[in-house]
Design a protein that fits this description.
This protein is an all-alpha fold. It folds into two domains: 236 residues, Rhopdopsin 7-helix transmembrane proteins (Up-down Bundle); 113 residues, no CATH class. The relative contact order is 0.07.
């Protein structure tokens, strides 16, 4: 049972770091994406500290309570980033750009206050709830209060946003509303427990909720990460398809750009390596179409729609161009019509590329 208690949370947290690393590497173009990446990084770090055995390990090399204060500080900073993220989504990326640095500064200040107050109990070797009454009230208020504001704000925005979206997005917003409500309930419980302790009142109904804090943190983090992993999955599928497209077009692209090198936009080696497979596919298809437009006057006046025939005609035109032995040029009207036909969509180019080696 002890093994399961340690292994199951670890199996939940491990994929979170994988998603964080992928987002930091590949999904960082916009300000909202960078704020979301910061939120994800802080939540993953907080969930890691919440794992069974991690906080005691931190306490063993520092002082009693350090792991708990680190975990709560990370979640405070994550809450600040989450507030800035939803502000950016709701008001637009160009408005209230000061919210993120301001919220982060406030969260850092509150984390310092929380750690100073918590240390008053932890230095005695007891948990903050067993220390001075005022310390737990301040500790709970500093931690739960700001996060409660964030959770309620997200809950209100999610409820208002449900009416604006449809289908899968609506389900995601509804799930977000549910999670925000669950977190709000837990944080309210923490505040109520702090007040109850201050007045030396015990409410047994609060204990199960308070003791499940680490489990709630890990589960909420896991569900939110499952939601933000969707763009990564879509990107992976798109890049995988683009990689296959690049591989299929490369022989035709190499032949045509060798015959018509002026259509290739020169790039520095470092910029060329930085291109994604989707960018490479777009670049190659554009350069192929440009080369076809240059070679088009050297194609037969009557050209079949058969991809194999088109591939053979393009090979002949590419070989003839350097020597000036192209066939008779067609009329301008024929040229424009055939150029449009040959520079069609990506599927058309790939069908021609599939016959390229056969037409050699």
């Amino acid at each position: 049972m002890d093994v399961l208690a340690v292994a199951l949370p670890a199996l939940v947290v491990a994929p979170l770091w994988y998603i964080v690393v992928l987002r930091l590497l590949y999904v960082r173009a916009t300000r909202a994406q960078r704020i979301l990446n910061a939120t994800a990084l802080l939540m993953a770090a907080g969930a890691t500290v919440a794992l069974p055995g991690v906080r005691p390990a931190i306490d063993s090399v520092t002082f009693h309570g350090a792991g708990s204060m680190l975990q709560n500080s990370l979640f405070l900073l994550a809450g600040a980033s989450a507030y800035a993220l939803f502000s950016s989504w709701w008001h637009g990326p160009r408005k209230y750009r000061w919210v993120w640095p301001a919220a982060t500064a406030v969260a850092l200040a509150l984390a310092v206050v929380m750690c100073v107050v918590g240390y008053q109990a932890f230095r005695l070797g007891v948990d903050v709830r067993e220390g001075p009454d005022w310390a737990f009230v301040v500790y709970a208020s500093v931690f739960s209060g700001p996060l409660l504001i964030v959770a309620v704000s997200v809950l209100v925005l999610a409820i208002r946003g449900i009416t604006r979206v449809r289908g899968r997005e609506r389900r995601s917003v509804a799930l977000l509303a549910f999670l925000s409500g669950a977190v709000s309930l837990y944080l309210v419980t923490g505040l109520v427990a702090g007040v109850a302790d201050y007045f030396h009142t015990t409410w047994p109904i609060l204990e199960p909720v308070l003791e499940s804090g680490a489990v709630i943190a890990i589960l909420v983090t896991a569900v939110m990460f499952a939601m933000i992993a969707r763009p990564l999955v879509q990107r992976f599928v798109r890049e995988r398809a683009a990689k296959a497209g690049v591989r299929s077009l490369r022989p035709m692209w190499r032949t045509l750009t060798t015959a018509v090198p002026e259509v290739v936009l020169p790039l520095r080696r470092v910029d060329r390596r930085a291109l994604s497979h989707s960018d490479r596919l777009h670049r190659m298809s554009v350069e192929i179409r440009d080369a076809i437009l240059v070679l088009e006057p050297g194609l037969p006046a009557e050209l079949s729609d058969d991809p194999a025939v088109v591939a053979a005609a393009l090979r002949i035109a590419a070989r003839a161009r350097p020597t000036g032995n192209g066939v008779q040029h067609p009329s301008a009207a024929q040229s424009r019509a055939r150029a449009l036909h040959l520079s069609g969509d990506l599927a058309g180019l790939r069908s021609v590329a599939a016959c390229w080696e056969i037409a050699a």
